[in-house]
Amino acid sequence: MKKSWILILLVVAAAVGWYFWQQQQQAEALPSGIVSSNGRLELEQFDIASLYPGRIEQILVDEGEDVMADQLLVKLSSTQSESQLMAAQATEQRAYQMVSQAQAGRNQAEQAMARAQAEINAHLEQQKVAKMDLDNARKMRSENLISDSEVSKRMAAYNGAVAAVQAARAARAEAQAAAQQVDAQIAEAKAGVNQAKAQQQAATSMNDDMLIRSPKAGRVEYRIAEVGSVIAAGSKVVSLLDTEDAYMNIFLPNQQMSSLQVGDDARIVLDGLDSVWPAQVSFIASEAQFTPKSVETQNEREKLMFKVRIKLPLEVAQKYKGLLKGGMTGNGYVRSDTDVAWPDELTIKLPAVKMPVQNAS
């Protein structure tokens, strides 16, 4: 039994050694101006969290499932948010009723002002007539045609007309004050409507946020929460992978970095796939770091490396999102000299896309 285990370990060690020897031979066979390093394909991860606390009623996706933008992922219990929405709607309705009542009061105040103005006009006419009678009586008295008592009588009639005008004007002023008060009530009622609308919008938004949706297309990596769990605000519920953001991080020594720039052409070759994928340099570290354990350099004395990210084009990542998976191992290639042509073995070669099988009708 012990000998069989030793034999297995020897075989595994030989296979690993052969693999790294082959990788080194391939690297050494590259023309001058093209450098490579091994790495893993990575997909950008983003977590979906809840804005509000609640109990999870449904999780509508499974791990590994592709989702579309705005697709419903998780449904939280919405009893409380629905109650708040109904209360906000009732508050808004009451606010509208207060506006209607205030506007009805404004109409009544306007009618009162109109009546007061009509009375003013009528009393002014009466005052005018009384003034004419008084002036006529004074003239007749000067000619001894009427007595003093008749003049006094005309004077009393005139004074009564003046008092009536003043009373009508006071009534109009009172009606105007009432109208101004009603205007203030209308403004307050309209402010209440706006506040109620804001409360309703907030309640509607909260109720909608009980339905947690994907902000963009991707693939479900983990279901962090489960049905029946009570979560707090900000708790993560689902972790997604951005299948449209596929890249590989490679590490290159200093002497191969001098002319490399963001946007330079690159290639990715993934283990197990007879393909060569186009890529571009999207990031170059500004400082060197120690060689990661996952990187096998040609010279062990090269301890400081620069991290370089090479990214697949968006249209390629979209087209092959079902084939590309995070963690796939392979090699990344970049040109340190843009005048050097890519060798034949690194000519872009994409796999054929399998079309879905149509069921016979």
TrEMBL record:
Cite the entry's keywords alphabetically. Answer: Coiled coil
Coiled-coil portions = 99-126, 165-199
Name the domain of life this protein comes from: Bacteria
Q: Please name the SUPFAM superfamilies in this protein's record.
A: HlyD-like secretion proteins (SSF111369)
Protein name (Swiss-Prot/TrEMBL): HlyD family efflux transporter periplasmic adaptor subunit
Please name the source species. Answer: Psychrobacter coccoides
